[in-house]
Amino acid sequence: MKRLLTLAALAVLWALPVLGMESAPVSSPRAVATLVSETGAIQPGQPFRVGLNLRMADGWHTYWKNPGDAGAPPELTIEGGTASAIDWPTPRRVAEGPVMTYAYTGQVLLPVTVTASTGAIKAHAQWLVCKDICVPEEGDFALNLPIGSPTPSPQADLFAAHDRAVPRASPWAARIAPDGTLFVQGPELRPATVTDAWFIPDHPDHIQDDAAQPLSVRNGGFTLSLKPGKGFDANTGLSGVLSVRDRAGMQADVVINAAPGPSPAPAMPPLGQVLVFAWLGGLILNLMPCVFPILAMKAVALARHGGRGHAHSLSYTAGVLVTFVALAALLLVARAAGSAAGWGFQFSSPVFVAAMTWLLFAVGLNLSGVFQVGGPEGAGSGLAGRHGVAGSFFTGLLAVLVATPCTAPFMGVAIAAGLAAPPAVTVLVFAVMGLGLASPYVALAAIPGLARVMPKPGRWMDIFKQALAFPMYGAAAWLLWVVSQEAGPGGVLATAAGLVLVGFAGWVFGASQLASQQPRRIGQVAAGLAILLALAVLSGISAVPVGAASAAEAGAENFSADRLAALRSEGKPVFVNMTAAWCVTCLVNERVAIGTTAVRQAFEAEGVTYLKGDWTRQDPAITEFLRQNGRDGVPLYVFYPAHGGPPQVLPQILTEGQMLGLLRAA
Fold it and tell me: Are strands 173-176 and 251-260 parallel, antiparallel or unpaired?
């Protein structure tokens, strides 16, 4: 018995240092708290770490230094030495009903660094634990650490695990914009790697914690659209923890201090790739419905010349290139003046649209033979269809102007990259795009053998030329509808009045062309007065007040960033369609792919919310959404899968099969 008592006493004496490294617990049905030490012994005056170790019951949690929309952070006060602030590990986002909090579940260690002259450490802590209700708790703790050579304590593993959970210094540059957009830039950040990201601010009220944080990833960086809170001030920057998850499910937590200012310039694709995309986009633009009638007109003119149309091909190419370069210059000037101009920007002006309506109507009248330009030898041909090289040049100009409502594949990437580059590169990208549009006619000039396959001149050309007037009338009717979207009924009335005046000018001018000198002059003056009166009407269209945006089509909701964020926070799948009334590609996609019965039924079956944004008037909120997704024009289609999956940007030309496959795979 005496031996047993001796062994028991030795065991107690052996355990005393161990017990001294963890305090007596403070327990409740909700949590057990102790004060633990990383080291088994201390040296006076040398720093060491102790920590509040909280083990919470299932379903209960406590809070980070910024608790979010509710809660309070733990507090730890040390007696017997000087202590640092708590070294906070990365929290979890915990939704509590309609609010978002930043919290810890299970077990968490909250360490501080202490410098003391003795090992007698006392502490007082208080913490809040919540589940369905919140209960404040507190406790007093004591440690009695021996003096000696520091050695790891049995609790050292807790500190090692804590060190792995603490966010690291960020290797990435970060900027915060006045609208709350967080820009993060780093060469390894790519759509192929980053699948999710979220930000937790250091201080309450800097962002709306319960709002979704839409992610947009590009090569070289990504953006998080944060919703500013009442304490947000972009001029002072923004600090907090950024968590980034890759495709393997690995999560990196970093501390960022986002400086105020615009976004860092996004990583631009290689210039060679951008130029290839620009050329391909311009080439495919030849097949777009808004360009085809003009090109058919030019093809008839080239056929009339048989194998002698090289000069006309080159002149047409010059007209295309000059107009593309002029568009690039206008875009650069508009952006320098603070405008959010993008591809097709001029079609957001009802004055420009009305003028284009009249121009295409006049071209149709010319093709129909109502009037002629250039004397009897040019009968039935106008400025864009006359026999001389000047006519070819103006055909190129007209082809570009009517092409801007269309967007071809590859164009979106090329235009966005070009506008983000220095001005000289922007002009080069647009010039290469123009070269792509003119490529078929460049080939006719460069390869003599191609001219021999052109159809031979004949009567068929006059008939075909007159038939081409009707696509022009159709285009004018479509543009009149665009005016109705931009300027309302008053704009339609003014544009229709202008059509009457243009029609009268064409008729009286044509009727007087075969008359004697005096009647011819009277006809020309009458036509000129009609055109001047039309221009007076045109100047008044801009003064017509623009009504509210048209209601979304059946089955769709009007787009807003707040609505998208709310749907994303609820984990619902969302399809976003950014369109404009003047975008022919958009309208075709909506008719043949998005608006079909099968696709609408798939939307309903999969619970997909359809958000439609109208960029007809270049709404700034939609412009920002386009920029976040690397675009400077419409169409843009983005699909957000359920449960917060990474968004998918769809091609600019859609088919019903693509849409159904996407929805079934969601």
Answer: parallel
The more confident residue out of 235 and 155 is: 155
Residue 431 CA neighbour count, 13 Å, CB half? 10
Sign of CA dihedral 472, 473, 478, 481: positive
CA distance linking residue 294 with residue 228, whole number of Å: 49
List beta partners, residue 201.
240
The percent of residues in the chain predicted with pLDDT above 70, rounded, is 79
Name the 3-class secondary structure at 179: coil
Distance CA 41, CA 541 (A): 85
Q: Of 618, 638, 585, nearest to 281 (Cα)?
A: 585
∠ Cα 316 279 425 (to 5°): 100
Q: How far apart are CA 662 and CA 666, in angstroms?
A: 6
SS3 216: strand
User: In the chain, pLDDT over 90 holds for what percent of residues?
Assistant: 27
Q: CA 86 from chain center: how many Å? A: 39
Backbone angles phi, psi at 73, to 5 degrees: -75, 155
Q: Residue 509 in contact with residue 520, Cβ under 8 Å?
A: no
Start-to-end CA distance of the chain, whole Å, equals: 73
> Distances in Å between the alpha carbon of 632 and those of 48, 341, 626?
56, 8, 6
Q: Which two tokens stand for residue 616?
A: 């007809």
Helix or strand run (H / E) with residue 555: none
Name which residue leads in pLDDT, 172 or 624: 172
Give the pLDDT score at 317.
83
Q: Is pLDDT above 70 for 130?
A: yes
Q: What is the pLDDT of residues 238-281, one digit of tens each?
A: 999 999 988 777 889 999 999 887 655 445 567 788 788 888 88
> Distance between CA atoms of 557 and 611, rounded to whole angstroms?
5
What is the predicted pLDDT for the residue at 379? 33
Pick the closest to residue 404 from 473, 341, 488 (CA basis).
341
Q: Which pLDDT does position 615 carry in this prediction? A: 81
Name the band, by pLDDT with cuts 50, 70 and 90, for residue 165. very high
The amino acid that residue 349 corresponds to is: S
Q: Supply angle C-alpha 373, 377, 382, rounded to 5.
A: 25
Length of the chain: 666
Q: In this predicted structure, what is the pLDDT of residue 377?
A: 30
pLDDT of residue 516: 73
Q: Which of 532, 556, 542, 656 is nearest to 609 (CA)?
A: 556
C-alpha angle with apex 103: 100 to 109, nearest 5 degrees?
Answer: 170
